[in-house]
Amino acid sequence: MLALTRWKLFLVLGSVLFGLLFTLPNLLPPATVASLPSWMPHQRLSLGLDLQGGSYLLYEVDTKALEQERLTNLVEDVRTRLSAGQITFSDLGVVGQAVSVRIADPTQVDRATKLLNDFLGERLMNGSRDVTIKPGPDQHLVIAFVPEAANAAARDAVTRSIEIIRKRIDSLGAKEPFITQQGADRIVVEAPGESDPERLKAVIGKTAKLTFQMVDVTAAPEDIAAGRIPPDDEVLPSDDKFLASYVVKRRAVVTGEMLTNAQLSHDENNNPAVGFTFNGVGTTRFATVTSANIGKPFAIVLDKRIISAPKINSAITGGNGIITGSFTEQSAHDMALLLKSGALPAPLNVVEQHTVGAELGADAVKAGQISVLIGAALIFAFILLAYGLFGGFAAIALVVNGLMIVGAMSLFRATLTLPGIAGLVLTLAVAVDANVLIYERMRDEVRAGRAAMPAADAGFSRALTTIIDANVTTVVAAVIMFNLGAGPVKGFALTLLIGVLTSVFTAVLITQVLIGWWFRAFRPKTLPIA
Amino acid sequence: MWPLIKLLPQKTNFHFVAFARLAATLSIIAVIATVIGFFYPGLNMGIDFKGGTVLELNTGAAPVDLAKVRGAVSGLNLGDVQVQRFGAPNDAVVRFQTPAGANAGDVATNVKAALTRSLGQVTFSRTDVVGPEVSGELKLKGVEALLAAIGLMLIYIWFRFELQFGLGAVVALFHDVTLSFGLILLLRLEFSLNLIAALLTIIGYSMNDTVVVFDRLRENRRKYKRMPLRDLIDLSVNETLSRTVITGLTALLALSGLAIFGGESLRPLSIVLLFGIVIGTYSSIYVASPIILLWGAKKEDEPATPIAPQPARP
What we know:
CATH class of the largest domain in chain B: Mainly Alpha
Radius of gyration of chain A: 35 Å
Shape of chain B: elongated
Oligomer: heterodimer
Distance between the termini of chain B: 61 Å
Structural class of chain B: alpha+beta
Distance between the termini of chain A: 19 Å
Largest interface: A-B, 85 and 78 residues
Strand order of the largest sheet of chain A: 10-11-9-14-15
Number of domains of chain A: 3
CATH topology of the largest domain in chain A: Multidrug efflux transporter AcrB transmembrane fold
Helix content of chain B: 55-70%
CATH class of the largest domain in chain A: Mainly Alpha
Order of helices and strands of chain B: HEHEHEEHEHHEHHHH
Strand order of the largest sheet of chain B: 3-4-2-5
CATH topology of the largest domain in chain B: Multidrug efflux transporter AcrB transmembrane fold
CATH architecture of the largest domain in chain A: Up-down Bundle
Low-confidence stretches of chain B: 299-314
CATH superfamily of the largest domain in chain B: Multidrug efflux transporter AcrB transmembrane domain
CATH architecture of the largest domain in chain B: Up-down Bundle
Number of strands of chain A: 18
C-alpha cells in the first residue's frame, strides 16, 4: 500500500490544490477576491444567520381564516343573487364549513337552487362549479365549496403570499432575502443583516387590504348602540381623531386591487400622506361614486380599521388622490409599499423567529475562530508529542483536511453555523482517530515481529476496515441530524458529514504518501512510533 | 523520550472484566438516578421544545435596571416572566411563555415595544420565538431522531457483527444517552435542539468506539479459537487501549478549547460532548463487552470445558 503510484500522487496533489483554491477566497479581503482571474473560484463560505446576524422568520398562512373569509363572501353572493331573483329568504349565515339559507316559499326552493347553481362560485378546470348546493331540511339550502376548491385556494394563497412578501422585502432594501415554502402552508423568510426585525415583521405580516367604503349616515345612532346594525352595514373601529368607530356600507366602492401605484406624499400642510393612482376600472367607479355623493363622507379602510373618513368635496375623476391620517414619514412610506405590493390573500402568523444582532454574530465568529485555532493547536501539539514524525505527517493531513472542508463548503455554498463550528472542531478530532488507528495497528504489527516497511504497510491495509466501520456510525448520526431540520443543527450535521468524508480520505491517503515518500528517501530500519 | 507513545507499555494486561461487576453497579445506580431525575426535577426544557420567547437585551452604557424591565412586562398578562442579568451588567435576558391563544410573534413584538418605551435606549441582540405549533413538532422530531439513530446503529451493527455484539453495543448506547441526559439534568442545562445534536453525536462516537473494540474482538476470536471469551475481551480491550486513550484525549483537548472559548451559546453543547466522549469510552470497555459475556458466547467458540465438575475417579 505504500507504493507511490501515479494515481495516488495525482489524487493527493489534486486534493491539496482543490483545498487551496477553494479556501483562498475566504482568506482574502473581498476586494482582492473580486479582482481574482475568472477561472479561479470566488465563492466564500456563507455564514448562517447566527454568525452574520439577521432574522429567520417562519410564517404560517392562516388557511382557516382564508376559508372563513371565502364563506363570508359566499354569504354576500347568496344574498345578492337571491335578492336579485326576488326570492325571500331568512336564516342566511355560515354554519360550520358551509353557508345555510332558508327559502321562505317552499315552491321557490327549486328556482333558488337553479339560480344559485348558475351564478355562484367559479368554474373549475373540469367545467363544474366550485360550489355544491344541497337541499337541507325545512326548505334550507346548504352551499359549500368542493374540497378541491378549498385546497386549491390554500395552495394559491401560499404561492401568492410568497410573491407579495418578496415584493415587500425587495422594496425595503433588505439584502439577499431568502424566501421559501416549507410544507403545505408555511413560508420561511431569511433576511441577513436586517437591523430591525420588528419592522420587517410589520411589513411582511400586514394583510394590507385596502377598501373605500361609504359611511352610512342614515343609520340611527340608537339602533347602532343597541346592536341593531342594518344588514348591509358594518361597524369598523377608527384610527382618526374624530370618532372611535364608524358605521359603513359593507360593499366596497373601490379596493386596493384597483390601485396601480402608491407612494409617499404630503398634504397641503406638508404632513406625510400616501398618494395613490387608480387603474381604469377604479377611476371610473370612483368618479361615479364621488359625483353621486358630494357632501357625504367615505371611509378609507385598511385591514378592517378606518384610517380616515374624509367628506367628498367634489367629484374625483382624475383617478388619483392622497390618503391622510396620523402618519409619520416611515409609516406613510411603509403603507405605500404595502399598497403597491398588494394585499395578502390570508393572514400570516409568525410561528418561529430567530434574530441575532450583527454584533452578537461577529462575537460568535470571533469566539468560533479562537476555539477552532486553539482546538487545532492542541491537537497538533498532542499528536506531535505522541507520535513524533508520524504525528507530523498526521498534522499535515489534518491541515489538508481543514482546507478541503472549507473548500468543499465554499464550493457547495453550504452554510456555516455556530454549531457548525463545533462540528468542525469535532471533525478535526475524529480525523486524527483514523491516523491513530493506523499507527496503533503498525505498532501491533511491529510487536508481532514484522520489519518496519511491512508493518507500516499492514498498518494501513488492516486498519482500513475498522476506520470505515467506525466512520459509518458518525455518517449515520450526521444524516439523521441533517433531517432533523432546524437551521443551526443542520449546519452542525453538514460540517460533520463533509468533515468525516474528507478526513477518511486525507488521513488514509495523504499520510500514506508521506510515509511512502519517507521510506523511499531515508530507508529507515525502524518506525519512530514503535 | 520522544515520541511519547513509546512511554505507553507495549502490552498492557489490565483485567478489565474483573471490574465489570463493580462498573455495572455504578452504571446501574447512575442510570436509575437519571430515570428518577426525569420525573423529578425533570428536564429543563428550552423554548425549542416548550415554546415561548427569549430576548437578550443590551442597554448601552447604563447598566440594566432589572426592576424596570420587570415593571415594563408585568402589565402585559404574560404569566411568569424570568428576567436575569446575563454576562455584562448592561446585558439582560427576558424569558416568557406565549399565553394560550395568542400569536407568539405578536406577543414578542408587543413586549419589545413595551421594553423600548420603558427603558429608552435598548437594543435586542437576540430574539428567539418558538410558537406552540413548532415546539410540538420539534419535540417529536427530536425524539424521532434519537430513536432513528439508535435503530440504524443497531441495524448496522447487526449487519457487521453477530446479534449479541449488537445487543452489547445498543445497551452501551442506551447507557451513554441516558447518562448524558443525567448530566443535562444534574447541571440543569437548558434542553434544546443543540443538545439533541450533541446526543446524536455522542451516539455516533460511542458506536465508533465500540466498533473498534468489537472489530478487534472478532479478529482475536478467529485467531485464538480456544481462548475463553472473558480473556478474549480483556485481550482485545488491552490491545485497543492506546488507541482509545489517544483518540479520547485528542477529542477532549479539541472540545475543551470550544467549551472555554466558544462562547455562551456553544457551552452546553460542548460540555455534553465532552462528557459523552468520556462516557462513550468507558461504556465500550465496561458496558458493551461485558454484556456479550453475560449473554453467553457462541458455542463453537467456547473451549470444551464441561459445565458440571467431573466426578473424581477413585
